[in-house]
Amino acid sequence: MALQSRYTADRGLTTRMVTTMFLIGLLYVVFIGVLLVLLRDAWPMIVIVAGVLFVAQFWFSDRIAAFSMGAREVTPEQAPELHGAVDRICALADMPKPRVAIARSDVPNAFATGRSERTALVCATTGLLHRLEPEELEGVLAHEMSHVAHRDVAVMTVAAFLGVLAGMITRVALWGGFSRAGGNRDSGVGIALLLIPLVSAVVYAISFLLTRLLSRYRELSADRAAALLTGRPSALASALTKVTGEMARIPTRDLRKAEPFNAFYFAPAFSSKESLSRLLDSHPTLEQRLDQLARISTELGR
Q1: What is the pLDDT of residue 189?
Q2: Is-contact 230 236, C-beta < 8 A?
Q3: Is 81 annotated as a binding residue?
Q4: Do 184 and 293 fall into the same domain?
Q5: What are the catalytic residues (predicted)?
Q6: Residues 73 and 168 in one domain
Q7: Out of 133, 144, 246, 259, which one is annotated catalytic?
């Protein structure tokens, strides 16, 4: 996938995105096929609902995510420092300027959404703006805009669709399936209604793990691309350390509200301490990210 900017291309990320999309697509086809077999009489409804949900997820998920995270677009007059930092990154990367937004939250973080550079939005929280120095802020924004340049934001949006669909079907089936299954003991309908939650749960688990694996790599890729673009890996490392440290001072209630959007954020609201739990994390550990930035700093110093 050729980039239309000066961000360093990442073949490893491209390979992982293509692989994830292929496996998610294959899983999606199998999932719909199982539903068609189990609910033969309802196949038109299944096809229509799956198609509508896919289109809605692809076209509107970025807006829904931005709205859910409290992002509000701001003008250069309203946020001159933030716009100035975005302008400098755009000039360095030779890419179109995204929409710029601020989320009123004390949780120090930033995120990017959008299907393409044309529809992209970059948002910083008030907590981040109050805590970071200008160079640190530019490093974070360069990280977020690399997600747009690499198009992994769009891939994550599509990849997450199957998990959302499977989870929704699981809840619907569990809510109404078992009661109906009791009245269909003499037919295969009862068995089908009992199998749907199980199949949906398996599909959800597989799609969740696939997106988590891609998410952790894309964060490392974004760190690397941002450090090479700005030439200041130490500024990004400082921002990472500061943001992670400040998370411990944020009330748990506020972190819980932010946790569902971890996959979008620059740094997770919560990170697992146990090695086994880290398999479910959306981000690599702070140590992994800082080690990579230290290596890049050494390379640039040469």
Answers
A1: 57
A2: yes
A3: no
A4: no
A5: 144
A6: no
A7: 144
Q: Is the pLDDT of residue 128 over 50?
A: yes
In a domain, 2, yes or no: no
Please indicate whether residue 144 or residue 271 has the higher confidence score (pLDDT): 144
Residues 268 and 134 in one domain: yes
Q: Tens of pLDDT along 18-64?
A: 998 888 878 777 777 777 777 676 677 767 877 777 777 677 777 87
Query: Cα 221 vs. chain centroid, distance in angstroms?
Result: 14
Q: Is 147 annotated as a binding residue?
A: yes
Same-domain check for residues 40 and 140 = no
Q: In a 3-state reduction of DSSP, which class is residue 13?
A: helix
Give yes or no: residues 123 and 92 share one domain: yes
Residue 186 pLDDT > 50: no
- Look-up of token digits 């269909």: 184
Q: Is residue 208 part of a domain?
A: no
Q: Do the Cβ atoms of 222 and 150 come closer than 8 Å?
A: yes
Q: What are residue 123's DSSP bridge partners?
A: 101, 111
Domain tally for the chain?
Answer: 2
Asked if residue 130 belongs to a known ligand binding site, the reply is no
pTM of the model: 0.83
Give mean pLDDT, residues 177-193.
Answer: 53
Residue that the structure tokens 């739990």 belong to: 277
Name which of 153, 282, 213 is nearest 16 in CA terms: 213
Choose the final residue of a domain: 203, 237, 269: 203
For the chain, the first-to-last Cα distance in angstroms comes to 29
In angstroms, the CA 109 to CA 258 distance is 10
- 133 annotated active-site: no
- My answer on whether 218 and 239 are in the same domain is yes
Which pairs from 241-244 meet CB under 8 Å and 24+ separation? 241/286, 241/290, 242/108, 242/131, 242/132, 242/136, 243/108, 243/109, 243/128, 243/131, 243/132, 243/140, 243/267, 244/286
45 is in which domain, residue-wise? 11-66+157-203
What pLDDT sits at residue 114? Answer: 83
Do 143 and 227 fall within a single domain?
A: yes
Q: Please report whether residue 4 resides in a domain.
A: no
Name the one residue in this structure whose structure tokens are 């250069």.
76
Domain membership flag for residue 270: yes
